[in-house]
Amino acid sequence: MQKIVITINGMSCASCANSIIKTLKAKQLLNDIHINLITKTATLTLDESHSLEAIFSAIKKLGYEPESSPSSPFIPASNAAKPLATSPLTPYKPSISPPAQGRPSQSSQSFHTRDKVDSSPATMLQPTQENASKTSTNPSQRIFLTPKIQELMHLATNFIHKKRVLLSGLIALAILYLSMSPMVFDTALIAPFNDMRVNFFAQLFLALSSMHLGREYYFKGFRALFAKAPTMDSLIALSTTASLVYSVYNALLGHTHWYFESICVIVFFVLFGKGLEQNAKDTTAAVIRTLLLRNLSQVIRLESSSQTSIPPQAIRIGDRLQILPAQTIPADGIITQGSCALDESMLSGEVLPVEKSVGQRVYAGSINTNRAFIMQATSTSEQSTLSALSALVQEALVSKPALARLADIIASYFVPAVIAIAFGAFLLWWAIMGVDFGFGVCIAVLVISCPCALGLATPMAVMIGTALANKQGVFIRQAQSFENLGRVSDVVFDKTGTLTNAALEVVEISSISELDQAEILAISAGVEQGSEHIIAKAILQEAKKQGISPRDCGEFRAFAGYGIEARDTQGITYVLGAKELLQGAVDSSLDKECAYIQVFLGQRVDSRYKILGSITLQDTLKSGAQEMIEALKAKGITPHILSGDSAANTAHIARKLGITHYKAHAKPADKLAYIKALQDKGRVVLMAGDGVNDVGALAAADVSLSFAHASDVSKNTADIIIYHNDISRVLYVMRLAHKVMQNIKENLAFAFVYNCLCIPIACGVLYYPAQILLNPMLAAFAMSASSVCVVLNSQRLWRFKS
Asked: Which residues are known catalytic residues?
């Protein structure tokens, strides 16, 4: 199973998307499809039996233009839903990932590690080589265009559309003069247009010209209608074509009751409204492009005796690249020569440049603000952090909150229902007032109905909300998270690395054997070599600080939530971790029940353990954690702590934060049970964690949040990723979610109320009591205005401040 993103040009409303979805699913051409109207993209879920060519062919038959999106990476199907982990393993203490040599692979063990295999955020969503090759296959044989050419084509398209709007406006004014002025002034028309035969052909010519300017609505509308999947374009095509035919028919009978002016005005309002609507869409989409798809120009590749300028797509792992000032980094890598200050706002939301030097990692999409440097690529441009974030954002944009599903269901039946209502109204008024009256009512009903407002209500708000979150370094995987965040009643935090800093400090080394403190530290550092766990980092940092070389060890074996085992070159097996791992070898007098983290070093002889010493560490609260907890409590949200740490240390942190609900010595299964217990009480839970032992709880929570420094499996499970260490962004994303959902509800309410009021009025329900009857031209204006109102209301989100 794989997911691929394609572009579908020509979609204008929810009914367009629904007709495509309905047709493709009816023909069983795919497993699933999600369409985003704003970006005009579709995410297809396919298996080996499905043909992309057949999908493209079916979409073209509906009147739309599909094309592959080489710049959009495949989204692994495994990320489509959160796996529910139910590991029975116990609380965290140190554990490791396999080193380059001497350790068994993670998949070969029955243990789960807390640590990262690769610290690059790009590992979250990496397309495989096989999938990447499939992505480049373009069924329509289109040539991939550079961003600059795409931008020029976009400008040209906008210019042509504006020209068409202007021409249709002039035509509408001209035909209104020909058709309406004689009703006001008998001598208003100049010769030869005062001759009704000339007037008729002039109006017919103008009407046909106007229809030609809006020709795509007819092509798409009738194709969709013939495919039994009518759209809003079908309503426009039906109403104006019927007006044309009826007007010609009346003329042949010698009548002067023509509807040519309605055709021209309807086409003008449709083109004008769509232009305003597309402008707002483009503004929103441009923010996403600016954040994620920075213009990656040619880059210099350094070879043994030459320099070559290559496109980013040609970068391979291991290439040495020269990055010049003001240049965007095209791939992830490590600085090998020089230093620089990088603008990483794309990743973290922080505007201040970050100083980087030799040996430090750099990420694609960052901008070099000052000095040239040389880096070695550790990824291709397609497998970089930038590509991963693009996939993450794409997944958010094609997903929908549950609130939007009702609108989708209604939109799928909307157009057929409107056609039925319009035909029924025509028959009724024909019987009461005559065919001319009934025809006018029918046209007004077809024109005034607007599924566009329903279709735009959700994606516009979600897209702007996603862009605002991205600006702050927060990436949301599913749009459903916006809805769930607004309902959160409890926030459950992992402690270490989430509420406290991801760096610990060694405060005491104790020996209870013949070994001295330096030997205890050397052995412990050797056992922890290669691990990314925060306790391992602290021990290795302390060894480096004291100038102590780690003991050479191999045959590493990690026990998630407990610790790690390794063997040195002399064949001695050492164990470092929680007291439970040493199976009773730790005397209770050695266990410090205080506000510290304590790990024990032991030696395994056969199946028994001998305690050698212990290392005591301390952690500190993250900046902003205290304020965040107070703000959550002020909002009526209950904070909790779930930690695998000691009871004393967990209680110490909980007291400092003013949290009364906490659980220490929490195993992965305990965390999962804790989350489910809250949910069983009807609570909506957000879980924030960063380790493998948090995965079960993250998967079970209504909303899950992790950090860029977290283990890869945690990031892949979480709904929300924060790409820096600022825990206060939790508050930001909750406030933003509230505003986004409020905006969606406003949009949907307006769309429902508009259609529920305007369609009956167009049907003539107010004609007898109040003599109110909508002219088709006014109906066209109302229809265009409704979509524009929804779009403009969504634009208000740009004013959101944290």
From this structure: 494
